[in-house]
């Protein structure tokens, strides 16, 4: 099974200490299937809000499931990520279960909404989240900081000239999570180009609207300062 660099990098950030992984916004299910195929995780729940997507994925997994490791367990769930029942399966020892919630491939603003709603039910618990937003990462990071998330690991993946910020976070454990992603940056041309693109994006908003919201102004000045520091 061929998967792209972004999904491969996400799958490599999943180690064997999780009892259960949620592949949220799973669409084709490629990420969760790769994680099960790697044989480090025994159980994956595939979640998407669109019934046809989940029905097709269920059929695919039923047909090709024999290619997965013998003891692999999976479930498909048609559900809004904001409503996930994170502790249904582990009634008696639910707080000991190591769970990883992956949300990948949706916009950063939608992720803000999902996580704000989800954390209103699960705040303060030891749950890892692995995020890969599409755009609006500055706004997402600000919300994550407000929600007291800490950073365990982050990396920048460039694919087809687009940049993706992958972050593994937890409310209880980890180091400081920053607005511009202190651990993302390496002295590489493609990283420099990604940062320059972010700056151009926020410059355009500010020049189209001199009275742009404070978040846009601070994103622009933070990214410019970072650019001068790094490159
Ligand atoms: C572009 S796909 C992402 C596929 C894969 N995770 C990736 O990173 O390539 C986005 C998926 O998110 C699903 N989605 C959007 N909002 C959702 C929500 N609130 N809850 C669950 N799934 C959602 C869509 O139905 C769609 O299948």
Can you give keywords for this protein?
single chain; Rossmann fold; 2 domains; 7 helices; binds S-adenosylmethionine
What does this structure look like?
This protein is α/β, with parallel strands linked by helices. It folds into two domains: 5-184, Rossmann fold (3-Layer(aba) Sandwich); 186-231. Helices cover 40% and strands 23% of the residues. The protein is built from seven helices and seven strands; from the N terminus they run H-E-H-E-H-E-E-H-E-H-E-E-H-H. It has helices at residues 5-12, 30-37, 51-64, 108-122, 137-146, 189-208, 214-230, and strands at 20-24, 43-48, 73-78, 99-107, 128-134, 150-159, 162-170. It has a seven-stranded mixed β-sheet with strand order 3-2-1-4-5-7-6, with helices on both faces. Strand 6 and strand 7 form a beta hairpin. Helix 6 runs antiparallel to helix 7 (214-230). The model has no long low-confidence stretch (mean pLDDT 94). It binds S-adenosylmethionine. S-adenosylmethionine is lined by residues 24-27, 31, 47-50, 53, 80-81, 104-106, 114, 132. This is tRNA (Adenine(22)-N(1))-methyltransferase TrmK. It comes from Psychromonas arctica. InterPro entries: SAM-dependent_MTases_sf, UCP028234.
Short synopsis of the structure:
The protein has 231 residues and is of the alpha/beta class.
